Each structure stands twice: as structure tokens, then as C-alpha cells.
Amino acid sequence: MSGTETPVEIDTGTAYELGPAEIDADLIEVERGTPTGEMLRRYWHPFAVSTDADDTPRAVRVLGEDLILFRDGRGRAGLVHPRCCHRGTTLYYGKVEGEGIRCCYHGWLFDTEGRTLDMPCEPEGGRRKERYRQPWYPVQEYHGMIFTYMGPPRDRPAFPRYDVLDNVPDGWEVVADGNNIGLEGDPTPCNWFQTHENVMDPFHVFVLHAGFSGNQFVAEMADIPDVSWHYTGQGVKSHQDRVLDDGRFFHRVTEVVIPNVRIVASPFVEFDGPATSIAWTLPISRTETKIFTILTRPIGQTRRRALYDGKRWNELTEAEHQRYPGDYEAQVGQGAVTVHSEENLAGSDKGVTMFRHLFRSQVKAVADGRSPVGVTTDAEQARFEVRAGNYIGRRDDVIDLG
Ligand code: FES
Ligand SMILES: [Fe+2]
Q1: Element (DSSP H or E) covering residue 322
Q2: Site residues for ligand 1, CB cut-off 6 Å
Q3: What secondary structure letter does DSSP report for 99?
């Protein structure tokens, strides 16, 4: 062989060279006993609307746990472990009564906090009923949404309230929506975190929603904004600033609050001012997610939906989903759980990076025995003032509003 041959250039970057797929467990775990599952369990989570609780037991799944929701004859909502504490059949087949739920198998009756009220096969209906407690979780109803706290009882925080939901103008109503943004109640089949961190990714709005699939919102949202991100006391917010065609300044603020609250003003820019809804990205399980929203609106106004070539999302054919993708396609397209080792985060992902950093630090806080941010037993401190919104006007007048 002579030494004069031209060396063959070796291809690089082929998929053959991909390393093993690695997932950041701190971002995606939801189960009891995992570090992140324990952090999530220090907060109240919405999981149903009030009308979901009635005298027919309903199977629900929250943070990877299967549970039974019901409402007793006195109007109290109850959330219990499905396996009866007697011999384990499911309370899904139970009967709801005035005082609680009665198991179909041997008739033990439990109240909404799991206390055993009756054991009909035992002498005197059970002489030591107080020894048996059906595992349960506390619930709280707020503006038509049902929340639960699934963490250690001694750490149960005050229930957080939101100014924009508690101070509604005359002629407006507050509505709880468990519809998961147009999916007609079905869960989104992917991990919750990739859905949630999208809220700190304002650049995708310009590409995915205002160009790639046509402009799905309104003209005010069409131009690429100046973006900046900022830590708040309990989360991260992004500023998206634009000068509109008529010369007015459009200051849009979006925020996420630890662990899973998302506050996004209407992308249809119907209202000038603070956001008119609060939403929660609920981890149903590691690979199922559902967004619950409490919104305010002029009484009777219908909720606007993004359109895809003039159609609603659930009217699209498979080929149209490819041609006009939206958040569902982009986020479920990342996989049931996204693969963090195959990402290349860039400067425009700074909001995602900031949120991940803050989130991981809260997982560590709980693992170290500290309280995560926003958790308080003081009801006054649990009141949240919303900064997110659409603020339009003279630059100097609106820039400090969010
Ligand atoms: S298994 Fe429920 S009462 Fe026996
Ligand atoms: Fe989006």
C-alpha cells in the first residue's frame, strides 16, 4: 500500500452512535416513595370537577395511584383507596349511602374520611369499628374543582387561593373545566413534565402556533416577540414583548408556579389585564397527563379553541395532524417520556432550563427534610397574586404590570 491514497472521510452523527437513552428521574417520577413523587405530594392537586362526584363510585387516577371518588348523601366528596380494608375487593362496586360508601362484599360502610361506620356481619355491627380505617385522602372543593392532598398528614398545607378567581367582576362567572384543552376529557399520553415545561417555551408559540400550522390564534400573537425570563418567588415567568401594528406595546406575561400550576393569559388576547384562568398540569401517572382549568369569563361566553386549517383538533384526519400539528403532536411526539440525553438545549430554552433547575431544587429540599416553595400552613400566605396577563398600552404604562 502506498502512502498517497486520499483518506476516506468517516461519516459522523449517525443514529448508530446514539448512546443509551437516559431520562432524568427527578423531572418525571410521580409515584409515592420516589423523591419527586414525594415533592409533588406536598401540594394540593385538582383531579376532577365537582359534578364528577356523585352517588356512583368513580375510578380516578392521580399521581399514579388508583382511587375511588364519590359523594355521600350529605353532599361530602370522598376519595378512598379502592381496595376495601376488610378483604380487598374494590369499592368501585360499592354503594353510596347517606353517610358514606358501603362495600359490596360484606357490607362494611366507610365515611368520606375512611372511618368504619358499620360491619353488618359482626356482632352489634362491629364492636371495635374504630380499629379499621379505609385508606383515604382529604379533598377540598374550590370553584367547582375537586382537589386532594396526598402527602404526609403532618405536612398538609393551607389550601392556596388565587386572586383572579376569588375577585370576579359583576357579570362574570367562574367555571371549572376538566376537559384537558379540547381533548374531551381524555388524558394526554405522555409524561406531565414535558407538557408543563412547554409553558416556559414562548418561542414555540411563534413557530408552531403562528407559522408552521398557520396562525392558530390572533394577529397580535403573530410576530416573534422579545423574550426574557425571570424567577418569581415560587416559579418562573416569561415576558413576551411586541410592538403592534398600531404602535401600541403588547407586554405578555406567562408564569409557572411550583410544582404544576400554569398561568397563561388567553392567546386570543380577548382581555387586557391579568390572566383570566389558572390551570394545573396533573400527572395522572408517569405516562398520562391531564390539564385542569378554572377560568373566569363573561357569563355564558364560550371558550375559544385553536383552529387547525379551520377545523377543531379532534376533527382532523391523520394526514391533517401531520400537516397542522399543535401542542399535542409536539409534546406526545417527544415520546411517552422524553429522552433527556438526546436533547440539545439552546439559548431559547433558557426558561425550560430555569424551571428544571428550580424544580430539581424543590425535589432536593423535600429529600433533605425541608419544605418546598409555596407551602405554608398560614391561610393568608397561601393567597396567590397572579402576574401573568396580556397588558396592552404605552410601553411605560404596561411594562411593570406583570
Ligand atoms: S371485602 Fe369489603 S366488606 Fe369484605
Ligand atoms: Fe403551545
Answers
A1: helix 318-323
A2: 84, 86-89, 103, 105-108
A3: S
Please tell me whether residues 111 and 61 are part of one structural domain. Answer: yes
Compute CA 209 distance to the chain's CA centroid, rounded to the nearest angstrom. Answer: 21
Q: Closest ligand to 201 CA?
A: 2
Is there a single domain that holds both residue 195 and residue 66? no
Distance CA 205, CA 217 (A): 10
Atom of ligand 1 nearest to the CA of 91: 2
Residues 6 or more apart whose Cβ sits within 8 Å of residue 367 = 35, 38, 39
Measured in Å, residue 111 CA sits from the centre of ligand 1 at: 15
Q: Is the per-residue pLDDT at 222 higher than 60?
A: yes
pLDDT band of residue 212 (cuts 50, 70, 90) is confident
- The rounded percent of the chain whose pLDDT value lies above 90 is 85
Answer yes or no: is pLDDT of 99 > 80: yes
pLDDT tens digits for range 104-150:
999 999 999 999 999 999 999 999 999 999 999 999 999 999 999 99
CA of 27 from ligand 2 middle (Å) equals 20
**Residues paired with 237 in a beta bridge:** 230, 255
Are 173 and 257 in the same domain?
Answer: yes
Residue 167 has a pLDDT of 94
CA 133 to mean position of chain CA atoms? 30
User: Which letter does DSSP use for residue 5 in this model?
Assistant: S
Question: Ligand 2 centroid to 324 CA: how many Å?
Answer: 13
* Residue ranges near ligand 2 (ion) with Cβ within 5 Å: 327
What pLDDT score does 16 carry?
93
Closest ligand relative to 209 C-alpha = 2
Q: Are residues 131 and 216 in the same domain?
A: no
Which of 68, 106, 132 has most ligand 1 atoms within 8 Å of its beta carbon, as the pocket-test mutant? Answer: 106
